[in-house]
Design goal:
Layout: E1 5-6, E2 9-10, E3 13-14, H1 45-52, H2 54-58, H3 67-82, E4 94-96, E5 103-105, E6 110-111, H4 116-127, H5 137-143, H6 156-163, H7 167-191, H8 196-209, H9 218-228, H10 238-254, H11 263-274, E7 284-288, E8 291-295
Antiparallel strand pairs: 1-2, 4-5, 5-6, 7-8
Helix pairs in contact: 4-7, 7-8, 8-10, 9-10, 10-11
């Protein structure tokens, strides 16, 4: 799971992508089954439903997965997570932000305490066994699920910086982000009948909250939203459903002890939604933490 705040600011990828044929109209899918159960299983029911309907989803317009829009999404996330639109500058970023997740690093805040950093380094090491991070794999396995630095200090942050100079490590970060966060979020959003903005809302929530089924995890937030409003795939109003989803996400943020700022919702995503920009069409103007960003 990723809980991102790099260099003191939460990350929200600045979406500067214009998909010229954008999904301003939600894609059409038949109504799906009930939302995921809150059982804490490794693969939520909703994710399994999306996998079962792969062909149906693949036949839909690319939406946020179109290269230009994916670039926008990455820039939007970076604006909220690192106060920059240059998301590629974050490959080498690493620090402990005091959120209980240990070290947070890279383009979507892979964390030593939430397993995704371990998965990333394991994947990278399969392709590059002699990389600077490989010696720290035993320590990463030992601290997984904790905020401990045992076995990582000293040297881990320097090794991360060195690894970030390797194109193979940057590619591994991209691939792990896509596998754990981007692709599941976008595909599930399409299953829920959401257009490009809704797909970004899901993706940002997946990055920020992690793919958990608990109340403050992505699937738990989606469960709560679906209990109060019908998705577009269920015949509901897309805008009304997204407002409900954002309300639930905001509540989850405010329930935290740290990183309780909600501007990525209040002055970014809700601004696009209330402008009726369901296709996430440029120009985009938004604020995070009082700073104004633009994608033209």
């Amino acid at each position: 799971m990723t809980r991102l705040v790099l260099f003191g600011a939460p990350i929200a990828i600045a979406a500067s992508i214009l998909f010229s044929g954008g999904d301003s109209e939600p894609p059409t899918l038949t109504q799906q089954a009930a939302g995921p159960g809150k059982t804490g299983t490794a693969k939520p029911e909703a994710a399994e439903q999306a996998e079962e309907r792969d062909e149906e989803i693949d036949a839909l317009p690319p939406g946020l997965a179109a290269p230009a829009l994916k670039e926008t999404a990455s820039r939007l996330v970076a604006s909220a997570e690192a106060s920059t639109l240059d998301w590629r500058s974050q490959y080498g970023a690493i620090e402990d932000v005091g959120d209980g997740a240990g070290y947070t690093a890279g383009i979507v805040g892979f964390s030593s305490g939430t397993n995704d950093m371990l998965q990333l380094v394991e994947s990278y090491t399969e392709d590059a066994p002699d990389n600077p991070l490989a010696p720290f794999l035993p320590a990463l396995r030992a601290v997984d699920g904790t905020d401990s630095h045992e076995g990582l200090d000293p040297g881990f942050t320097d090794a991360w910086h060195r690894a970030a100079e390797d194109p193979a490590f940057r590619e591994a970060q991209d691939a792990t982000r896509d596998r754990l966060y981007f692709e599941p979020a976008v595909r599930l959003a399409k299953l829920d009948g959401l257009g490009t903005l809704g797909q970004f809302v899901y993706y940002d929530a997946m990055v920020l909250h992690g793919p958990g089924v608990e109340a403050d995890g992505f699937y738990g937030i989606r469960d709560a939203a679906m209990a109060s409003a019908d998705t577009a795939a269920e015949g509901g109003d897309e805008t009304a459903y997204l407002e409900t989803f954002l309300d639930e996400g905001r509540s989850a943020i405010r329930a935290r002890k740290v990183q309780r700022d909600t501007t990525r919702i209040d002055t970014e995503q809700r601004v696009f939604l209330r402008e009726g920009n369901l296709g996430l069409t440029k120009p985009l103007v938004w604020q995070v933490y009082g700073e104004t960003f633009r994608i033209t």
